[in-house]
Amino acid sequence: MTTSKEGVDWRSVCPISSALDVLGDKWTMLIIRDLVIHGTRTYSDFLESPEHISTNILALRLKLLTCLKLIERTNPDASARNNGFKLTESGAALRPVLEGLGRWAQTHLKEFHSDMVKIP
Amino acid sequence: MTTSKEGVDWRSVCPISSALDVLGDKWTMLIIRDLVIHGTRTYSDFLESPEHISTNILALRLKLLTCLKLIERTNPDASARNNGFKLTESGAALRPVLEGLGRWAQTHLKEFHSDMVKIP
B81: pLDDT confidence band, cut at 50, 70 and 90? Predict the structure, then answer.
């Protein structure tokens, strides 16, 4: 395992494993999802999503995603709490992965989670 | 939040969130990756992958993935330790998501993880 200066522990040289070293948790891809759907989100906006991310996890994830250039501040001079975040080209490139996860869940998890909605 | 009889806590009705309720950790998609690459893997095979999954996490993930019908035993009558696992149609349908994660990492994480290999 090697640790980058951004604080990521790279478990192996495999690209799939490396993607999961950054995105492999229950919250990071939901931040990306909210930015794909809404374009720009403030810190407070993220807290209002139905999954109820905690403030400390949100702050940690926004910091890492900014370090790794997946997201950026819309106005770097404003205060942290009121500032918006948007996807960079790198973050926006995850859209097909998100859509694939959503389509997969609709087809293969519906029998276990009957309340799931359809993506329009 | 609703909990299914399989033990999954569904945080919301969103399909992307639901996919992450099952797959959103650093290990589950690596089990799927190994089965996509090798077809069949025994419990011992999984332990030899370069990321070094721990035995307790492996056992928990294999149990959940079997309950949710993403994987199945190749010979249900053999002992647990020597038995092989393979992907079901549901698990195999994650291949495009895995490939998307790998391609994304190669393009967008290379600057942070210079040792990463190329997927052939």
Answer: low
Residue of A93, A96, A100 lying closest to B108 (CB–CB): A93
Q: In CATH, what number is assigned to the domain containing residue B77?
A: 1.10.10.10
B100 interfaces chain A, CB cutoff of 8 Å? yes
Comparing alpha-carbon positions, the chain A residue that sits nearest to B31 is A17
pLDDT per position as a tens digit, A13-59: 999 999 999 999 999 999 999 999 999 999 999 999 999 999 999 99
DSSP string, chain A: -EE-TTS-EE--S-HHHHHHHHH-SSSHHHHHHHHHHHSEEEHHHHHTSTT---HHHHHHHHHHHHHTTSEEES-TTS-TTT-EEEE-HHHHTTHHHHHHHHHHHHHHTTTT-TTPPPP-
Identify whether A119 is part of a domain. no
Q: Is the pLDDT of residue A9 over 80?
A: yes
Give chain B's domain count.
Answer: 1
**Interface contact A90, partner B, CB < 8 A:** yes
A19 falls within a domain: yes
Q: Does position B120 have pLDDT exceeding 70, yes or no? A: no
Domain that holds residue A86: 2-108
